[in-house]
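U., I forgot to send this yesterday:
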Amino acid sequence: MIDFNKYNFVVEHYGVEQCSPNHSFGLGVKTSYLIVFILEGTGIFEVNNQAHQLNRNDSFLVPPHKIHKYTADKDDPWKYAWISFSVDDFEDDFAQLHNVDFLRKVKNISMIERHVSRLRRNENFEKSKYKTVREDSLVKLFISEMLSEDHAIVLPQKIVNADKIKEYIENNYFMELIVDEIAERFNYNRSYMCRLFKSVHGKSPKDFIIDYKIQMACKLFLESDLSVDNVSNSVGYKDSFNFSKMFKKRIGLPPQEYKKYIEKTLKQYF
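Result:
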C-alpha cells in the first residue's frame, strides 16, 4: 500500500496525442516521472537494452533519469495519453506500479481518458493554490485507481447475492428480522436462500442474525450504560426474556451478569 499522505505531487505536463508514423523519443531521459498509456495502435518501448512491442491497454512507466526510447509503428502508429509529474522520494512506491520491464496492463483504459479530462478542467483554476491542491489530489486519485485494478476480483454471483443479504441484516439488526420476510424481500425461496447464505458465510441466516444481534448488544454494554431492556430493544428483541436466553446461549452469561462484569472490568482500568 502507498501512503499518499507522505507525498505532494506536482503535474508537469499531460495530454493525448495521435502520433505520426515512426514518431519517437530517445534514447534519452526525463527529469520527472512519466506514465504513457496506449489508447490505439502500436509501437516499441525500449529500456535496459530490451525492446517491447506495445498495443492498446499497455502502458510504460519511467522514473526520472532512466534511459529509454519509444517509437510509433510506421504502419499503425499509436495514439497515447501521458502524464508527467514530480514528487520527492517516490522511487520505491513508484516501483509498485510496474513490472521489472517498467510495463503494466491497464484494464480500464477509459479511466485514463477521464483522468486527462479532469486535469484539463483543472486548468480553469489557473495558477493558484487551489490548482496545485487539485493537481496533487488528482494524481493521487489516478494512481490509487491504477492500484485498485490489481485487487479487482470478479466475484461469483452467489457470493454477491449472499453478501447483499448479509449487508441487509447488518444494516437492520435493530429490527425484528424474520428469515421468511428476508427471503421474500430478495425474491428467494426460503430453503434456497438458507443454502446459498450458509454456503458462503458458513452459517444459516437465522444463526447469523442472532450472532450479529448479540455482537451488537455486547458493544452497547461496553460503550453505554443502557439497561438490559434498553439493549434488548436496541438490537430488535421486543421480548427481553428471549433476548436474555439467546445472550446466555451465545456468551455464557446472562446479560445482567455480563453488564456487571463489564462495569467491574472497566473500573479496574479507568
